[in-house]
Amino acid sequence: MGWREMGEFAEKLAAKPLFYQRAYLGSLLPNYVKSGNLEKYYQKLTDFNFLMAKIQHPEFGLQALIDDFNLVDDSEAVTHQEYNPGTAKSLNLIQAVLWMSADILDGDKTQLAGQLLGRLLYFEMPLIQTMLEVAKQWKAAPWLRPLTPCLTPPRRGLLRTIEGHSNSVNAVVVTADGKRAISGSFDNTIKVWDLTTVNELSTLEGHSYLVNAVAVTEDGKRVISGSSDHTLKVWDLTTRKELFTLTGHSDSVKAVVVTADGKRAVSGSWDKTIKVWDLTTGKELFTLKGHSNLVNAVALTPDGKLAISGSSDNTLKVWNLTTGKELFTLKGHSNLVNAVALTADGKLAISGSSDKTLKVWDLTTRKEKFTLKGHSNFVNAVTLNAEGKLAISGSSDNTLKVWNLTTRKEKFTLKGHSNLVNAVALTAEGKLAISGSSDNTLKVWDLTTQKQEFTSEGHNYSVNAVAVTADGKRAISCSFDNTLKVWDLKTGKELFTLKGHSQWVNAVAITADGKRAISGSDDNTLKVWDLTNEKEEFTLQEHSQWVNAVAITADGKRAISCLWDNTLKVWDLTTRKEEFTLKGHSNSVNAVAVTSDGKRAISGSTDNSLKVWDLTTRKELFSLKGHSYSVNAVAVTEDGKWAISGSDDNTLKVWDLTTRKELFFLYGHRNSVKAVAVTSDGKRAISGSRDNTLKVWDLWSGNVIASFTGESSIACCAIAPDGVTIVAGDKSGRVYFLRLEGMEALT
Asked: How far is the C-alpha of 403 from the C-alpha of 89, rounded, in Å?
């Protein structure tokens, strides 16, 4: 869709001559500032229509808009009689949202309103709320409007997400001038990023296997990378060429650091050794041996005379790089040591471990000073600011934590990654942190902003399934936190929580009368809940394996559960007994849907197929094959003629259940499709994916109508009977309440 179609305001502007467009969008704000008319300047930057027109115009775009907010700094504004602290705060918040959402808006301008609403509805500020009221009315294209504040707000640290790697980001380092970040990934590449524009500058390719570690010389001219191909490579950042390869390790290189003078590199490997390299000659100088297990981390003192290594033998060792001898060993961790950092004076070391702790060590006394506890999973990365007073750690609990080493306490937690945090680096002045994660992204965090807590409705862990009552008034979600939550669909407020499962709750379905819900769990049970009395009614226990999915027939008399043991079970909810078992899949059954007449069930499996079952004869009718990976989700149209499936092959397929053939496939997600639902009129489908997006599809044209990007992998979705209200859940525990707007633009 071109910018001319993006709204009445943009359409009117597009009708003007090109010189007028350039002047209006490019010169208007600088002219206001130059003339001292800051009131008009502020008004334009809180005008949703102006924001949309500027990011959509091909000659300007998002970065130009972000730069507009920097035309006046606080000191200039304070001297102006019309300055209002509330105005400055509002502008800062809007700019922060643009930064945070830049990776999304660069690809899809129609998400501007959704990103602003999802992140700014928290703030009861007149300028913000006025702008959001205008954004809500945007009708120029179909889009998904958040009904509640559901995305990470600004002023909680996260500045921007950087996408570009196609696999886990395992290493990150920042140049001394703070202008560039270098990342290494499981996609075998190293990428160089501009931290001002957050654009990719270059990709360095040459390793034949995973890149686990990167280091950069003090002058920012060379990068050294370590890989699971057992080598290190030295790269020239000016020419973007490989200079030479360092060979000698017999297993994966997991860590690399470089001396301040740029003359030597030190690497740690899963071959249990540390090697010291001459970066002038490309030759190995010597090898340090002593660890009895894998070497995972290495750090150097600023003078380059001492190295400290962390190992899977649960210890750290301190080495003299002049003599090539081990000086001493530090013991105290009860599990693998994954990360280590040193203070600038070389007197303190801090280590991160799979025992979920960080330990601070005094290298003079050779003793542990104290332990930092707070992460709920492995600590994979740690770095220190220049003064050695703050530590930042990254963990398999998907968070970063900032620690005050003077008070020995956690300052705050940074949340935003949807998978393990593997790496963290700081800019020299300590204001920005850059993290790398198994969610394939890097995130840039502002450590100076005041931390603000906001109430965010949701679960503590992944939301695995959602369902909506037939009257469209309530939604029910279930989670890895072992609970179900019942929500008011109009307000997005939690009504009550259902507790009783002893393990993850994977599935939920609601009877047509809205009086009962049935949930399936890893505790091998189905539970039937009375939604009127907010209590468990009874439990169906004859499962030998985890319950992955559940469906209910329209008359509310039967439930069908899908099991990890490759079977489906059909239950009589009146007698509370199992009726029969359906066998035929050769792997775990992940999803099931039932036709409205209650006569057929359609299941999807990790065996890459769907099967259609006759619930009267208790027989398999036929199989639908075409997906190349696991089928995770399935829905069926109200008339029972079409089935829609979502798969790990990143596609949805639409099947004709009469001809038993694939009609067409829907391609647009960049990762596994985990959820699918279909409107009651059969015209649209909604899908959720591990690429963090929710997409609305036109089933007649096969086109994407609208997209919404959440904070984490979308695991489930459901549609209210009105066909426009959507509920979704993600892996971070968020529940999204959205409304499809702007459908008039298609007519």
From this structure: 27
Region of 43 please: left (phi>0), alpha (psi -120 to 50) or beta.
Answer: alpha
Q: Which of 611, 618, 614 shows the shortest CA–CA distance to 589?
A: 611
Dihedral, 443, 449, 450, 453 alpha carbons, nearest 10: -30
Per the CB < 8 A criterion, the answer to whether 517 and 509 are in contact is yes
Check the CA dihedral 713-718-719-725 and report its sign. negative
In this structure, which amino acid lies at residue 180? R
Determine phi and psi for 288, rounding to 5 degrees: -105, 125
φ, ψ of residue 278 in degrees (nearest 5): -90, 115
Identify the residue with better confidence: 275 or 158.
Answer: 275
- What's the longest Cα–Cα distance across the chain? 82
Q: Is 102 helix (H, G, I), strand (E, B) or coil?
A: helix
pLDDT tens digits, 430-460: 889 999 999 999 999 988 864 555 555 688 8
Q: Which residues have CB under 8 Å from 337's CB, separation 6+? A: 296, 297, 310, 311, 312, 314, 315, 316, 351, 352, 353
Instruction: Give, for 398, the enclosing helix (H) or strand (E).
Output: none
Nearest-angstrom CA–CA distance, 161 and 119: 15
- Is residue 334 classed as helix, strand or coil in its secondary structure? coil
What is the helix (H) or strand (E) element at residue 84, kind and residue range?
A: none
**What is the residue-averaged pLDDT of the chain?**
92
Query: Tokens 């003079």 map to which residue?
Result: 364
Whole-angstrom distance, CA of residue 383 vs CA of residue 338: 12
Q: What is the mean pLDDT of residues 191-203?
A: 90
Rounded to an integer, what distance in angstroms lies between the CA atom of residue 489 and that of residue 494? 9
Alpha-carbon 415 to chain mean position = 10
26/11 Cα distance (integer angstroms): 17
The span from the CA of 40 to the CA of 108, in Å, is: 28
Nearest C-alpha neighbor of 371 from the set 380, 384, 358? 358
pLDDT at residue number 11: 65
d(CA 410, CA 424): 17
Cα–Cα distance measured from residue 292 to residue 304, given in angstroms and rounded to the nearest whole number = 24
**pLDDT of 274:** 97
Measured CA to CA, the distance from residue 334 to residue 618 in angstroms comes to: 54
pLDDT digits (tens, 9 = 90+) for 83-133: 566 788 899 899 989 988 988 998 899 999 999 999 999 999 999 999 999
Q: Indicate the DSSP class of residue 734.
A: B
Query: From the DSSP assignment, how many helices (H) and strands (E) are in the chain?
Result: 11, 56
Q: By C-alpha distance, which of 71, 62, 64 is closest to 91? A: 71
The rounded distance, in Å, linking the Cα atoms of 68 and 83 is: 17
SS3 549: strand
| Distance from C-alpha of 543 to C-alpha of 524, rounded to nearest angstrom | 5
Do 265 and 218 contact (CB within 8 A), yes or no?
no
For the CA atoms of 94, 95, 100, 104, what is the dihedral angle to 10 degrees?
80
Angle of helix 126-136 relative to helix 85-100, nearest 10 degrees, comes to 40
Average pLDDT over residues 403-408: 95
Exposed/middle/buried for residue 362 (C-beta within 10 Å: 0-12, 13-18, 19+):
middle
pLDDT score, position 744: 85
Task: Provide the 3-class DSSP secondary structure of residue 290.
Answer: coil
Residue 642 one-letter amino acid: W
Query: Which residues on neighbouring strands pair with residue 714, listed in sequence order?
Result: 730
- Higher pLDDT residue, 155 or 663? 663
Measured between alpha carbons, how far is residue 445 from residues 7, 121, 745 in Å? 33, 21, 37
C-alpha pair distances (Å), 335 with each of 293, 313, 319, 408? 12, 8, 21, 22
